[in-house]
Design a protein that fits this description.
Blueprint lengths: L1 E4 L22 E8 L13 E2 L1 E6 L2 E2 L3 E3 L22 E2 L20 E10 L3 E5 L11 E7 L12 E4 L4 E7 L2 E7 L14 H18 L1
Antiparallel strand pairs: 1-13, 2-8, 2-10, 3-7, 4-5, 4-9, 6-8, 9-12, 10-11, 12-13
């Protein structure tokens, strides 16, 4: 389990010591989840798929609404990420270019889902569901934004950037900070999977072909 240390006091007003890091347990109306890494799908037009978001307070699970300021695939709208069904999913706008082959850090939050908690809530647990191990449309990192107005850019605290599982990521928070539990464990979705030698075999094959041409 990964411990993420956050400040435990309230957001300071302008002129204080600067913005704090997003901690859902401190009480917010909206939480936005932005992509902070590429997906392994090869096409640059491929999008991030987020299958489900669940949010809990000390009193139990919340009913959520979702929207996306960055756009969505017309067949996979934001509501599908909060419908209680992990087989459905929200898909971001295909124009961002989320593939690892065309990913760059300037695309962070280029695909983002905003969760409306209905009112200001102290969220103690947040669960993110992606497509599972080996899924081509899962990201390796996300940025969590805490805000009171609907626009995530209005947040007075810095986003919390964390590694996430291709399956289920559980974020447990208190006023002291947050921890994450990843099932299955984190791996870099932009790196070859363990045992995947296809790229190596391709390189060897091309080299052998080149040598063959030189010998002709």
């Amino acid at each position: 389990m990964l411990q993420i240390l956050l400040a435990s006091w309230s957001v300071l007003p302008s002129g204080g010591d600067g913005p704090l890091v997003c901690n859902p347990a401190l009480g917010y109306r909206y939480l936005s989840i932005g992509a902070a890494g590429g997906i392994s799908a090869s096409g640059c037009s491929a999008s991030w798929d987020l299958h489900e978001v669940e949010s809990f307070t000390s009193s139990g699970q919340l009913t959520l609404m979702a929207s996306s300021s960055s756009g969505s695939d017309s067949s996979h709208l934001p509501g599908l990420a909060v419908d209680g069904d992990t087989s459905t999913f929200w898909a971001g706008d295909h124009d961002v270019g989320m593939s690892c082959s065309c990913w760059e850090s300037s695309k962070k939050d280029g695909q983002i889902l905003t969760i409306d908690l209905g009112s200001t809530q102290q969220v103690t647990r947040l669960k993110l569901y992606q497509g599972g191990s080996g899924n081509f449309y899962a990201v390796k990192r996300v940025r969590l934004h805490c805000h009171e107005s609907k626009a995530f850019s209005s947040a007075l605290v810095k986003p919390l950037e964390i590694e996430v599982s291709t399956g289920v990521t559980t974020i447990e928070c208190s006023d002291r900070g947050c921890t994450t539990d990843l099932q299955p464990a984190y791996y870099d979705t932009c790196a070859p999977l363990p045992g995947d030698t296809s790229n190596t075999q391709l390189a060897v094959g091309l080299a052998a072909a080149f040598v063959g041409i030189l010998l002709l």
